[in-house]
C-alpha cells in the first residue's frame, strides 16, 4: 500500500518534469492514472483524487502618488513597489490531508527571522464537513479578509482594518483552527494563535478568534450574506504596541517590496503609543458584523467593527475605536462576482476580447477615543476621526491579468502631519493607486 502511494508521488514528479521540458512520450504507473493541468498554474493529480500537487502564485505591482496628510511635509510623493509576489505550492496527500505554502518574495508578509511566509499550513478534511488546520495562517475575521487579495474589489482593504490588524494577522506565530460548512448556507470557525511576541517570562501572546456566517443565497450573482466575528488577545506583555493607526488606503506611505515614501511617508497614529511598560494593559478585544448582497452584476457589502483595549494600570484609561465601511460595485460588462460560502471569489470575463470592466465606490469611517493622549504636534486633544473615499475601476483582461486604478481622498479630525517636529497642519490628502496583477 505504501509503495502504491509513493508511486503516485513519483509519477506526479515525473509528469511535472516531462511536461516542463516538452518531451513526447507516455507516463505509466502501477497506481492510479494521473492528470496534468496547465490552466491557472501547473497541477498534477491522480484520478482517484488521493494525491495532487499544484504550483501557482500572484504578482501585484503597484504605483501610487499622494500628498497632504499622507506625507510629513504635505507635498506630493510617490511609491512603486510589489504589493505581493507570492509563490504558492499546495495540494492533497492521502486524500484527507491538504497542505499549502505561500511565500512572499516582496517581504510584506513575515520577516527575515521567521521567514516571509504568508501561509504554511496542514489541514485534515477527513471528518467532512469539519476541517482542522494547523500551522502559520491568518486568523478568520471579516468578509474582506476572507476574500483573497486577488479578488478584493479595491487594491487595499478598508481603512478600519488597519486599526484592528492583529485580528486577522498570524503575527509570525502558529495557530490551530477548526471550521465547518453546513448545508451550503452555514459556516463557523474557531481558532487560537500563539503569536511571535513574548512576555518577559517567554510566554507567547495568545489570540482567540470566532467567526460565523449565514448565507441563504450563495451563488454568483445571487448572494445574501450575514456574519459575525470576535477576537481576543493578551495585551499584558512588555513593550506592547498599543497604537491605533491607519495608512488610510495608501499603502505606499509605508511598505516593503520596493520603493515607498521613505521618511516623508505619514502613517497617522489616532490613539495609543508604542513600547508600553509591562502591566499597562490587560486584554485587547474586537468584534464585528458583516453583510453582503449581490444581484447579477451589482454587489453591495459592508462591515462594522469595534475594538476595546482594556487598561490594567490606574494611570491609564481604556482606548476604544469603532468604524465601518460600505462598498458598492457594478460590472459594466454584465458578469457577476463569484461567491463561495463566507467570501467573494473570482470575477471571470465572459468576453475574451474586451474582458470584464467593473466600477466601485467605497466609504470608510472610524473614530478613536483615547483620553490618555495629550495634545501634540500631530494631534489635538479629544477623539480622533477619519473618513476615506475610494473610487475606482477594475479591468479583468482575462482570468490571469487584472489592471486596477483607484482615487483615494482622506479627511481626518484632530490628527495632522508634522515635519521636523513642527506641525505642517494638513488634515486631508489625495492620492491614486494603479495596480497590474498577474495570477497563475
From TrEMBL:
Pfam families: Porin_O_P
InterPro entries in alphabetical order: Porin_dom_sf, Porin_O/P
Keyword annotations: Signal
Position of the signal peptide: 1-24
Cell division among keywords: no
Record-given protein name: Porin
